[in-house]
TrEMBL record:
PANTHER family: 3-OXOACYL-(ACYL-CARRIER-PROTEIN) REDUCTASE (PTHR42879), 3-OXOACYL-[ACYL-CARRIER-PROTEIN] REDUCTASE FABG (PTHR42879:SF2). InterPro entries: KR_dom (IPR057326), NAD(P)-bd_dom_sf (IPR036291), Sc_DH/Rdtase_CS (IPR020904), SDR (IPR050259), SDR_fam (IPR002347). This is 3-oxoacyl-[acyl-carrier protein] reductase. Its EC number is 1.1.1.100. Residues 3-176 form the Ketoreductase domain. One of its GO terms (molecular function) is 3-oxoacyl-[acyl-carrier-protein] reductase (NADPH) activity. It comes from Kibdelosporangium banguiense. Keywords: Oxidoreductase.
Length: 234
């Protein structure tokens, strides 16, 4: 049965791979964008996740076209790396607002329809850095760690209504976000990845479609690493 899926930040990168994977299996897929073109075959809804009104309007548009969102993949995220002493409060709160409060805004709005339907899947894209920490990434790591407590709270609140809530912690994925890292840093990271390579975006997407599937009905509150072994032990 085709489900109504929303992937935030699904216009490019990991989010686009996730959106395509759901669309390939026949689901009705919407993606948020902030003014860019929408990839073919997907419903683009303009939405900045830092703005609750835009979130509400995007969900209303999806409801009218695809029906209430049944599978939410909260993927939109940003980095703004710098060492603690140089990090302004604005840099800290801006990253938290996009990555963590943004997830709260979309999950809260999505839960309305899911509760009515008594079925839903919430998938949050965190990061291996949320568990291990990252020098120069205090804001980002805090936001990604926060997603875990958030998702597990929802797992407890909503489990009785057939709504699962899980987290994926990708390792190093080759996208625009990581392209900006200095070559030396990339090599350092790669040296710590047991499988010895970056992830392909499709490998993160496979975990997302699995968590959205009926086969994953008994998995909730889980943190699923897709990191080539980078985060083992955390
Ligand atoms: P990209 O930088 O390639 O894409 C980020 C996406 O998030 C874009 O679609 C962007 O939209 C969207 N976005 C950012 N801020 C907002 C906002 N306020 N409102 C709506 N959309 C927003 O990143 P990746 O694809 O690499 O990352 C996707 C997710 O995966 C992120 O949450 C990231 O933290 C996480 N991740 C990435 C890893 C990696 O190695 N790449 C590793 C671990 C986790 P727009 O096009 O408008 O900018």
């Amino acid at each position: 049965m085709a489900r109504s899926v929303l992937v935030t930040g699904g216009n490019r990168g990991i989010g686009l791979a996730i959106a395509r994977a759901f669309a390939d299996q026949g689901d009705k897929v919407a993606v948020t964008h902030r003014g860019s073109d929408t990839p073919d075959g997907l419903l683009g809804v303009k939405c900045d996740v830092t703005d609750a009104q835009q979130v509400d309007a995007a969900f209303t548009e999806i409801e009218e076209t695809h029906g209430p969102v049944e599978i939410l993949v909260s993927n939109a995220g940003i980095t703004d790396d710098t060492l603690l002493l140089r990090m302004s409060e604005e840099q800290f709160t801006r990253v938290l607002d996009a990555n963590l409060t943004g997830a709260f805004r979309v999950a809260k709005r999505a839960s309305r329809g899911m509760l009515k339907k008594r079925w839903g899947r919430l998938v949050f894209i965190s990061s291996v850095v949320g568990l291990s920490g990252g020098a120069g990434q205090a804001n980002y790591a805090a936001s990604k760690a926060g997603l875990i407590g958030f998702a597990r709270s929802l797992a407890r609140e909503l489990g009785g209504r057939n709504i699962t809530s899980n987290v994926i912690t990708p390792g190093f994925v080759a996208t625009e976000m990581t392209a900006v890292l200095p070559e030396e840093r990339k090599q350092q990271i790669l040296a710590q990845v047991p499988v010895g390579r970056y992830a392909d975006t499709a490998e993160i997407a496979a975990a997302a479609t699995f968590l959205g599937s009926d086969a994953a009905a008994y998995i909730t509150g889980a943190v699923l690493p897709v990191d080539g072994g980078l985060g083992m032990g955390h």
